[in-house]
Each structure stands twice: as structure tokens, then as C-alpha cells.
Amino acid sequence: MTQPEVPLLEVAVGSIDELEDPGCREFSIGEGDWPLRGFVVRQGNAVFAYQNNCMHVGHPLNYKPDSFLTKDGSQIICASHGAVYDIESGQCTAGPCRGKSLRKVEIEIRDRVIYARGRALR
Ligand code: FES
Fold first, then answer.
1. What range does the domain containing 37 cover?
2. What count of Cα atoms within 13 Å lies in the side-chain half-sphere of residue 69?
């Protein structure tokens, strides 16, 4: 028996102008027990989006809501054990998962509103 395909969904994360620069906002795609959880990072006029899972052991990267950056705002940091990731590439540059990369989430900006697209995990 084949599983029904999980539909591709799009959510509005918010206006780029509502985010600090640099700044982050979490989002969730899909309902139920296994939504796709992610976050966007604004850096100037550029926006990047990743799934909210550290590549070390899979914890969410943050403890505090919308908080994903190092103190100086230059990199993404995992609150659990300190893995540090490049904002633009998602590549881990220091810490226990050096060499791995965060999983990107597809985004589009229309009329300065950020939309994230993806499928719930189930
Ligand atoms: S879970 Fe992210 S560094 Fe350990």
C-alpha cells in the first residue's frame, strides 16, 4: 500500500521589514505531530531559510523563540552544544558537526513578504 503524498505547502513568515537586521523568525509548515519547523535569517536585503535541526544530533537549534544567531549576529549557533553555521551557506564552520550543512528551505519574497515552501514531515 502506498502512502498518500504529503502536499507541498506555503506559509507567509512575515514582512522582511519586521525582522531585525540581522534577525530571525521561526515558522512551521503543516499541521499535526510532524510539521516542518524552520527559521529565516535576514541579513541586509538577503534572506536565508533552514530547517530547525542541528546537524549534530538533531535538536532544535534554539532555546529562545526566534533566537538563532551568535551574539555579534554574524553566524547561526546551536544553543545545545555550540555548533556554528555560516548564515549564507548553512555550512557548519565550528563545533561538533563541522563540515555538515543545515538543510535549506525554499523561500520566495513577494512584495517584501517572505514565503516558505515545504512539506510536513508526515
Ligand atoms: S545539537 Fe547542536 S551542537 Fe549539539
1. 9-118
2. 20
